[in-house]
Amino acid sequence: MLYSAFILGLISSLHCIGMCGPIAMMLPVDRKNEAKRVTQIITYHLGRLSAYAVIGLIFGLLGRGFFLAGIQQKMSIFIGLAMIIVVLIPEKTFAQYNFSKPVYKIIAKIKSSLGSQFKSRTYKSIFTIGLLNGFLPCGMVYIALFGAIAMQSASFGVLYMLLFGLGTVPLMTIVVYINSLIRMPFRNKIQKAIPYAAVIIGVLFILRGLGLGIPYISPSNMSLFVQPTPNCH
């Protein structure tokens, strides 16, 4: 299922252009020294990936807890359904409940710290920009976190989120160089494809949980559950 993380990141990167694109465009990189600009952009991405890794570790540990409890198969089905539901429910519905209100102060502090970092061109500041950027609320990151939980392992949770982040790197890098490369009509078409991709990944998680015996997609029930004794043939 790890490949789904990179695919989700690659597809959702056009969503990232609208949400995080302005941050990438405003990066205080050196416009005259190309070699330095490249290393600064890499530093920015390392900051974002570090944030995703931390989040992946936390949710991977959560998934590990479900794994040890022996409910990983049901959890995979639940997570797949959750991915699909999040896509199908209109964004306005979530907005009216204001789920982010309990952590609004934390988000405000992150945004404030993020703004202050743009005053410096040091690698530390650029890394911090990427790090704080990675912790900002994002619908696509939330969907990826469902996948990190389903990995049922702290290390694989980290890897899932890193692959998701790597999927966003190519387009987010291009944005730094050419702000107007992607026209709005084309971007809107890709935006419409994002929900379909999320639903497909959700279906994959459901199939994984059903244990239909399909290699790589839906392993048998025996291989999905923790066994007290080895199952030898």
Verbal overview:
It is a single chain. With 233 residues, this protein is an all-alpha fold. 76% of the residues lie in helices and 0% in strands. It has 11 helices and no strands. It has helices at residues 2-19, 21-25, 34-68, 72-88, 91-97, 104-117, 123-135, 139-150, 154-177, 184-210, 221-224. It is elongated and about 55 Å long. Residues 222-233 have low confidence and may be disordered.
Distance between the amino and carboxyl termini: 26 Å
Instruction: Summarize the main sheet.
Output: none
Estimated structural class: mainly alpha
Mean pLDDT, nearest integer?
75
Order of helices and strands: HHHHHHHHHHH
Put simply, the count of helices is: 11
Helical content band? over 70%
Q: What characteristic shape results from the CA principal axes?
A: elongated
Strand content bin: under 5%
Rg, Cα atoms, Å:
19 Å
Number of strands: 0
Which stretches of 5+ consecutive residues score pLDDT under 50?
222-233
Keywords, separated by commas or semicolons:
elongated, disordered C terminus, 233 residues, mainly alpha, single chain, 11 helices
List the helices and strands and how they pair.
Layout: H1 2-19, H2 21-25, H3 34-68, H4 72-88, H5 91-97, H6 104-117, H7 123-135, H8 139-150, H9 154-177, H10 184-210, H11 221-224
Helix pairs in contact: 1-9, 1-10, 3-7, 3-8, 3-9, 4-8, 4-10, 6-7, 8-9
